[in-house]
Structure formats: structure tokens, C-alpha cells
Amino acid sequence: MFKKILIANRGEIALRVIRTCKEMGIKTVAVYSTADAESLHVKFADEAVCIGPPSSSESYLKMSNIISAAEITNADAIHPGYGFLSENADFSRICDEHQIKFIGASADMISKMGDKATAKETMKAAGVPCVPGSEGIMVDFADCLKTARETGYPVMLKATAGGGGKGMRAVWKEEDLQDAWDSARYESKAAFGNDDMYMEKLIEEPRHIEIQIVGDSYGKACHLSERDCSVQRRHQKLTEEVPSPFMTKKLRKEMGEAAVKAAEYIAYEGAGTVEFLVDKHRNFYFMEMNTRIQVEHPITEQVIDFDLIREQILVAAGVKISGKNYEPALHSIECRINAEDPYHDFRPSPGKITTLHAPGGHGVRLDTHVYAGYSIPPNYDSMIAKLITTARTRQEAIDKMKRALDEFVIEGIKTTIPFHRQLMDEPAYVEGNYTTAFMDTFEMKPKA
Predict the structure, then answer these.
(1) Is 7 exposed, middle or buried (0-12, 13-18, 19+ CB in 10 A)?
(2) Hey, what domains does the chain have and what are their CATH numbers?
(3) How many whole angstroms separate alpha carbon 85 and alpha carbon 51?
(4) pLDDT per residue over 373-419, tens digit each?
(5) Residue 35's pLDDT is what?
(6) Which residues are catalytic?
(7) Using CA atoms, how far apart are residues 74 and 308, in angstroms rounded to an integer?
């Protein structure tokens, strides 16, 4: 087992990893930018190393600084969390070259599954259902036009290096294709330095449902049920739940088997998710694979009583998984609390938290790194907390979430707490009748 793990991340996920390491008797090293000097992950780690100024490119994305921090503290493993370098093949490779275990996928695995066009071809070969569309990257607009006609409108243009909704365009008719092609490529080039595009059939009334998987270094994989992530704004998840209200036992079995097949076909090692689009007829199609822990992993932990971070560490240390597939025994909902103003188009709201009262009680979990007096820097993602409620039924989990949100007080900044409180009363959400288009018609009610 590892003696010391460096967490190459910040905020709540860094704190989450530190907690499990402490329970396992493993020493921890936090890294931080100058903007994060007062963050709780810095305070609770056994050691902490400043790796640069506030800019991510000069700190959390600066591989040489992180490797140096690991070497001077004698860390024998690095946990990347999510985001930043968690799905960076070069970083995984550099860790290996320095004899530091990367707690995540291998460089080869990240390369295979990180490029969406390559991942789709790999999944086709594995026999996993895929969305109809282009055979890899489209060479030019003529290829794009031909593919759209063969696939049939509506279609979705996607940047192969994309993420967070950048480089994506829905096209409903041919006369709009050229503009979509040009703008998507421009956006992708600006965001990722890569304007390669591929195309998929646009799935109507889709649900975004992902399957949590774990694979070990002996070629065995298992799944830990699904998560419904369909409530999104600009392709960013807002709330997630497990089980999905759209799920059936038959569909879970089929999707679970497909996800395990995908993981074992590529001999996947570590925790990851296989993400699917599910249409209104419950046909499902492979969308992408995330070769890391997900933001929303706590709801899976809650419904099957399982520590996914612990499992990640064990697998990285060479321990075999049980191979057991899981079904949810309870219902769990997660609300992502962001430092944003939902009454003004979710405008970011960094600043100092003057008052914080955390909700509690049976079935309530709060993952956060903030506290009263903490200043939220403007340099990073705006998520400051994840509020999770768990109960025997979906309605009980919703009722518990309402109560927890009413208890949750954060002053000094704007947060998305009012949005989530309204969401819990929205008839379509309460009925479980929502798709990825849910937020297209959602409107915040005026403040009471």
C-alpha cells in the first residue's frame, strides 16, 4: 500500500481524497496556488506545497511543479481528482517515468478514450451501441455535408477535443450546416487548440445516463449502477440522482453489461464512467468515457455504501476487485451548489463568505471546502459544495433535499441554492419527467 499520496487538485475533491487517505493510514500532500492558501484541503493535509500563482496554467496544470512537489515530499502516488490533469495522458506518462503511481488510467487508456472519435471506434469494436454518425474525424466541410445527409437530420457537430459543451452545435436543417461547422471549429480551436470535428445523430428527448464502473489490473471490471445527469445548463450538470427515474431493471442490466464489456475490452484500470444517451424509447448509445472519478460520485457511494476513492486507491495498489455488480438499495440526489447568481443568468459570484450554516440530519451529506470567512477566488470553477440527500424513496429524498436547502445558509456571495430549492418543486422534476432539454424552458421565479 502507498505510504504517501499527493493530491494534484484543489477544493472539495482534494479534501474528499484526504479524508479517505487518513482512514486508510496514508499520509497526504496538498498542493495549492497562492489563491488557495486558506483552503481547507491545505489545512487538513499532512503536508502542503505551494505550486504557483492563481492561474491554473501556472499551478494546477503545471506538471513540472506537481512532479517536483511529489519528489521533494517523497510521495509514492498522485491522485488527480477530477478536472485539471485527471485525464491528461502526458501527465499519467510522466508520473510513470518518475516511478510515481498515477491513481487513474494509464496514458494509453486516456489517449484511447479521451479522444471522442477514437473512443467511439473502440466501443464499436467492443460491440457497445454507438450513435450513428461520422466514421472518425471529418476531413472538410464536403465530408461533413455528405455525413449529415447519410446520417439524417437533426445532427450534432462535436469537437473531438471538446468538453463543457464547447465546440458543439445542433443542426436541424442543411442550410444551417455551414455556419455551425465554421463556428464550432472556431470555438474548439480557441478553447483546445484543435478544430477536428465529428458528427453524431441528434438523439431526440435524450436522457444523459452514466454507468459507474471499476476495473482492476487483472482485466476484471464491474459496474456500480447508474446516475441520471440529465438536468444540465449549457452541458454543465446541475443535479444528479440515482437510480434514474427513467430506469427499468431490464435497461439497467443491458446498460450495465455494455459498460462492463466496454471496460474489459480495453482492460480498464481504475474508477471511471461510461456515459450514454438514452432516447425516449429507452434505446441507449455510447457517448463518451470519463477515465477518472466524477463530481457526482457521492450519490453512488450513498446508495450502495461504498467508498469509491478507497476503491481507486486499492486498485492502483494492485488489489483485485470483487467483480460484483451493484443495484441501488436507496435513492440519492445531489445538488451542485455554485457561487453563481441564478437570478442573473447564473453569473459568477466570487467573494468572501461572511456567514455559513451547513444543513445536517439523517440522510444529509455535504461535501465542501468552504467556511465562514473563506474567500472564493475568481480563478476556478464556481462549484463550492455538493449537497446530497439519501432516503428509501425518491419522494423522500426530494423532501429531505427541500429541508436541507432551507437550512443551508451562505451569505456574502450569491449561490445556486434558490435555484435548487425551486427545482425540487418543479412538477416535471418531481414526476421524474425530464430530459437534457429541461433547462431550455426553466425560468427562475422572482424572489419571495
Answers:
(1) buried
(2) 4-103 (3.40.50.20), 132-201 (3.30.1490.20), 207-440 (3.30.470.20)
(3) 14
(4) 999 999 999 999 999 999 999 999 999 999 999 999 999 999 999 99
(5) 97
(6) 292
(7) 25
